[in-house]
Amino acid sequence: MKSIRILIICLLFSFNNIAQVTSLDSVIVQGYLQSVPYRNASSAVGLVRQADWERYSPAVMLPSLNTIPGVRMEERSPGSYRLAIRGSSLRSPFGVRNVRLYYNQLPFTDPGGNTYLNLFSPLAFNTLEIQKGPAGSAYGAGTGGVLIGSSDTAAQDLLNIRFLHGSYGLNQFDAAADLSSTAMDNRIQFSNQHSDGYRDHTSMRRTYGSWTGKIKQGEKASLSILALYSDLWYQTPGALTLSQYKDNPRQARPAAGMFPSAETANAAIRQKTFYSGIHEQINATDNLKFDFAVYGAWTGVTNPTIRNYEKRTEPHYGGRFSTSYRRDIGKSVMILTGGGEYQQGHFKTEVFKNAGGQPDSLQTADAITPQNALVFAQVKFMLPGGWVPSAGLSWNRNSVEIRRETVVPNTIFETRYNGEWAPRFALSKQFGAVTVYGVVAKGFSPPTTSELLPSTSIINSGLQAEWGWNYELGARGRILNQKLWYDLNVYYFRLNDAIVQRRDGSGADYFENAGSTKQFGFESYITYNLLSYPDRPWGIQAWLSYALQQYTYDEFVQLQTEFSGNRIPGVAKQVFQAGIDVKGPWNSYIHGSYQYTDPIWLNDGNTEKADAFHLVAARIGSQLFRNFSWFAGADNLLNVTYSLGNDINAAGGRYYNAAAKRNYYVGLGFHLKKDLPSQRARFR
Q1: All structural domains of the chain with their residue ranges
Q2: Three-state SS letters, 7-26
Q3: 27 pLDDT band (50/70/90 cuts)?
Q4: Is 469 exposed, middle or buried (0-12, 13-18, 19+ CB in 10 A)?
Q5: 561 vs 329: CA distance, rounded Å
Q6: Has domain 2-683 been given CATH number 3.40.1280.10?
């Protein structure tokens, strides 16, 4: 306890060269096909930058993403992530659905609608831009939003090596090297992580490697190349009932009736992914630009569960094209943007009887062919007086064919969602250092391949696409002598045919449409420079994040049960976070943060809910000699028992996945700067 008190007291005194009090005004965001300063964006957007990643443990992305209001990332066990934007986790047993990811300008979400975000090591992202709300006018299916991630191709270090050790068997090694020449920039990244986990049967191993190359083609063009490989294995302990959770939150799911325990079934996921793509940008003239991206990917998954043993192979490919034209019209500027995207996959899913973690007799085999296509266009005007109206529209075609090969003759199920239009209208006005904006947008999201063919192996032929309209007002800017930055927005989203998750007695998930929802929300993110020196890298900054999410079912009747008016499960009504960042001499730093999360309903009937919880975290560090640095930190300093990543609507009340109690980590880094002559002099 003494060490904890010392750590908290230090919050008052010191902090980071890495997490400098940098201005958000100058940051450029990429959403909706235009590069604009963050302050001027006509959308609800959150940014996770290098300084935000380095407030927390380098082992996980969760706490950094969760500082963005409206964004909720959960971890049922190490490696098993769930990401929701404004309640999009309604339909996510794990992973990322109803949200699209683009990485280094390449489409990363597969044509089946699934995003394997857990394959990435945290070091893969330098920045992560989060566009919240329906973004179908430019990015197609998905009512939750869009993630736009990028790696660091302009790093200041020639070589960066980091060792990390922490509680519950955490060990991690990260390395990144930047090799540049007059013709090409190269960045190579490697990460290896192992954790025993807090709960029983929660070991995890991940090996990640990537190469990013940028070929210099002069002032008018650039070609980027990406290749990455990830090998992830993690055990899945299963959710607990309330009595099991209270009795021993660290236990894995025990045997129940005809179902074995998670440990007896050797329940786990082995996930391998190879991804490669190229991205070309051409500035034909000062006013005309072209953008091309093509990729190919392969993912293989094996998943022994309590119910069965599943094998999946998911090769897919696709591309994206866009063009932008700018023209001055008197004192105004018009920007026209248009393009298209296409993806196709050739998936194979086989389900076997699980014999203690080994495949036994074949039960079902399915060939799955998902296909997505969209075309989009947008017009934007920059008018005198700071007025910026814009309008966008996309046409979408989504289809999935499932051929059950274990039935003779083969049974073919096909679903098509043709002619889906996704319009978006936005208007913003600049008032000095403040921008006010309004948005009206329609979004839609067809069921993913994992929802049409869930772990029950029963093809869901009746599942419909969900769709809805979002209305939003927001403001962002600076006040109080430029010391306080704020980003505020309020929205109302009405979703129809909402897809919700359910679980049967074995823990297998299945999905159904749940009528309509009403989703009202308020989001705020504020930073305040308490102390700064223009001529010194010292300072103190405080930040605050708050989300109010008043989400209810509007019309939802299941058989004879009325759920209309109930709170939507899996979403906390209020989430509040605050923190302080202090930087001092010798590149010393300390970060401290606090989070409060409201109780969360666990089923549609609102009969059971998870308790509210409070979390406190801290990290300190400094430069050690010229090329070395050290850091140390702790999570869950209050030693709270809480469930992170609840299984919603689970049969038998198996809702709870306990998160780690108080845990610590320490790390050492080696950094070799790109200034080679001076570096050599230092080592003489």
Answers
A1: 2-683
A2: HHHHHHCCCCCCCCCCCHHH
A3: confident
A4: middle
A5: 59
A6: no
